[in-house]
Amino acid sequence: MNATLQNLLQEQLNLLREQHLYKPLLTVESAPGARVRVGGRELINLSSNNYLGLANDDRLKAAAIRAVQEYGAGAGAVRPIIGNLALHDELERTLAEFKGTEAVLVFTSGFTANAGTIPTITDADDVILSDELNHASIIDGCRLSKAPTVRYKHKDMDSLEDALKAASGAKTRLVITDGVFSMDGDVAPLDQICALAERYDAAVMVDDAHGSGVMGKNGRGTAYHFGVKDRVDIQLGTLSKAVGVVGGYIAGSGALKEFLSQRARPFLFSTGSPAAVAAACIEAIRVMRADEALTPRLWENARYWQAGLQKLGFDTGVTETPITPVMVGDEARTQALQKGLLEEGVLALAVVFPTVARGKARVRTMPTAAHTRADFDEALGAFERVGKRLGIL
After folding, report:
1. CATH classification of 58-290 is 3.40.640.10, yes or no?
2. Which residues belong to the active site?
3. What is the CA 293 to chain-centroid distance, rounded?
4. pLDDT tens readout for residues 324-380
5. Where are the domains positioned within the chain?
6. Largest CA-CA distance found in the chain, in angstroms, rounded
7. Residues 285, 239 contacting (CB under 8 angstroms)
8. Half-sphere exposure of residue 70, counting CA atoms within 13 Å on the CB side?
9. Taking the model in full, what pTM does it have?
């Protein structure tokens, strides 16, 4: 191995540790749920995106097992060759009906959906207008595009309008925003964004990874929540959070799906998802549509959890959704809060630079529909003890 390269890597790792930015991977030894086993201990899990508790649902597991028995363990090829299974087509029809769009194209992840779609539908004559706090996958998708990208101030409609005016000479103007912002839990004003886009003849793309299963009727998403489903050109959804499995998709017009299937590089050059994944996702959508109590239960739990933290004196930031940051600021103290909570039996992970800006470190907590009041009360006790010990409270 090259010694120069290895020394450079080790120096960078040492620097991350010195700056309290190093985050070792935790290994979970049980099925995902409200409580998980880590290091042989049972912990209350407040770090999962498994919003509706479907990741370990018996119905999804049974559907996956049936698909493995019928189709095997893998798709066998990229979808444009022979890896396009009947279950992929069924999943896309199911999602299109659920989202109320003409068509859906499924990718292997939400990240690849963004990284594939944005550079495929834009070129050097276009302009992308992106919220400054958009997800990393949007940022990378914009970097891959030949179109210039203008970052407008977070949720600032005056800033967006100024950017739209300045881009008046572009062939196409594409406004991209998260629906729910994953680190702070606040929500994009989609109704206002759509109104501005229509005034300046721009297209709108919404990354609804954290809105899928959370916002709107039966979790249909942020566009449903604002009543602008037919005014949003492109919706990205994820299959790895509320749906409980893995993957991502783009919902929109039939022409959009067809063009992406011909030109989006992550779709063209990634092996199709295993049949078990597609089958479990189909079952998850069926459960979400049938059980109208799932999403309201998530919100009820989120309100209980957030009220408990706020009563103790913790700063939960600007969240408008179940995403609940416990704002600390200092990276070292944030890492100490995570460590102290782990010792108390609570899995709540620190989020530090570069995921958030320096000085904006927080422990991000994620209440789900699967948690009980007993889970929350026990976790609140741990937060209170550790918070007082560290001087946060």
Report:
1. yes
2. 182, 210, 241
3. 22
4. 999 999 999 999 999 999 999 999 999 998 889 889 999 999 999 999 999 999 999
5. 21-51+293-389, 58-290
6. 60
7. no
8. 13
9. 0.95
